[in-house]
Amino acid sequence: MITLVILLGTYIFLALFRVKKVLRGNISLTVLLFFTGTAHFYKTQEMSMMLPDYISYKIEIIYITGVLELLGAIGILISKIQRFTGICLILMFVGFLPANIYGAFNHVDFGGHIYGPKYLLFRIPLQLFFIWWTYRYTIKLPKKG
């Protein structure tokens, strides 16, 4: 829920200052990715519990995905690589979904996963919303010029 508040709150805040729509959408996504990306470095253990036991190097995976989120946060603000970054972020968001499903079914004590599978009724649409947002502001609207 906090991620949705961060994304939409930043968007509304920037709208008050009449920041252009595409830039507003991208800055909002940057703030979200900065928040979630940095969490990989101080909520590492909690996030690693969202990965099944058969996966090796859990902590390293969490660090790498955190770095990728931070790079994505920067990349969407650079027009020459914005589209490529958007595609990579969409793939990453799709890739995160199995970890969220696993976390929910195993009641991982992180975020809403503790509520079990019913959390997915919120989380899956939220993940789809992040994918849509990323597509809209990094691929679709910038193409229109």
Molecular structure report:
By secondary structure, the protein is mostly helical. It has one domain (2-144). The chain is 75% helix and 0% strand. It has six helices and no strands. It has helices at residues 2-16, 21-42, 44-48, 58-75, 82-105, 120-144.
Quaternary organisation of the protein chains: single chain
Termini Cα gap:
32 Å
Biggest pleated-sheet summary: none
Number of helical runs? 6
The value of Rg in angstroms is 15 Å
Residue ranges: pLDDT <50 for 5 or more in a row?
none
Count of extended strands: 0
Pattern of helices and strands: HHHHHH
In round numbers, the mean pLDDT is 96
Gross morphology is globular
Broad structural category? mainly alpha
Helix % is over 70%
Overall number of domains: 1
Percent of sequence in beta strands? under 5%
Quick tags:
single chain, mainly alpha, 145 residues, 6 helices
Gist of the model:
It is built from 6 helices and no strands. With 145 residues, it is mainly alpha-helical.
What is the topology?
Elements (H helix, E strand, L loop, with lengths): L1 H15 L4 H22 L1 H5 L9 H18 L6 H24 L14 H25 L1
Helix pairs in contact: 1-2, 2-4, 2-6, 4-5, 5-6
